[in-house]
Amino acid sequence: MRTSLRLSRPLLALAVAAAPASFGCGRQAGEPSAASPERAAVVRFWERLGEATTLRMKGDCAAAERAYEAALALDPRHEDALYYVGQCLRELGRPLDARKAFSRLVETNPASARGHLALGALLASPDPLEPLDLDAAERHFRRAHEINAEETGPMLRLGEVLLMRGRVGEARGWLEAAANTNPKSVEAPFLAGYVLWESGDGLGARSFYEKARRASQAEAPPQGVLGEGDRKGPRGTAAQPLTSPMGRTLFGEDSWPLSQALAPKMDAAYRAVRERRRLLLLRSGA
């Protein structure tokens, strides 16, 4: 039977330290010894995974990707390794390979909310170099929400996809839910206002637009630590293009100017959203 590689570091260290040095004394039948190939593979796996994590935290995605692949060669089903190699591949401009890694993750664990969210984000990206598959993105965002209904990310992203697909009533429901669940979100109320603006409800649109503006101008969290929905940098600077694991949202760039002193007027901001939607639909072939 294959030895699991999913031991925590402290348990692994204790297991190695406690293993008898000779004769296998005290070792249960079938348990690998400290010098066995199975135990050596466990040690090599954690070494590669630790190396990959360190490189990723330093921003060296190319080297981190190689280290994650080395770890996956030892345990092809390790969820953290699959998730982070996918993120590294996406950062390296290899979206098709990233999609394969995320797909392997949700095949390994169909209940991986982060796996489904990562796939949905990849398939609903405004980046012209990444695949735009709104049908598949919708399925993955719905699944991520089913697994973790408290997370507002899938709500926002699902609202964006439904808006793109012209299902504005559904889109409004998801966007308002995201705005109510996460008061710090800028994009959710901004897009909820856009849906109302397109329907001719100027007063309703104004209410959500102003809510988005207030959220965009909120104070930065203590010590510059960003939470979900935060839009400020450590010194209160305007939010920059997303470098989060979820990447850029479909309409995120249209909400960024709200934090500026000379924020666009509501009509101008929403005309920009309308034009971006038109261009994205052309790209998607819808």
Descriptive account of the structure:
The chain has 286 residues and is mainly α. 61% of the residues lie in helices and 0% in strands. The protein has 13 helices and no strands. It has helices at residues 9-18, 37-57, 61-74, 79-91, 95-108, 113-123, 134-147, 152-164, 168-181, 187-199, 202-216, 252-255, 266-284. Helix 3 (61-74) packs antiparallel against helix 4 (79-91), helix 7 runs antiparallel to helix 8 and helix 8 runs parallel beside helix 10 (187-199). The chain starts with 8 loop residues before the first helix and ends with a helix. Residues 1-29 and 219-243 have low confidence and may be disordered.
Highlighted features:
single chain, mainly alpha, 286 residues, disordered N terminus, elongated
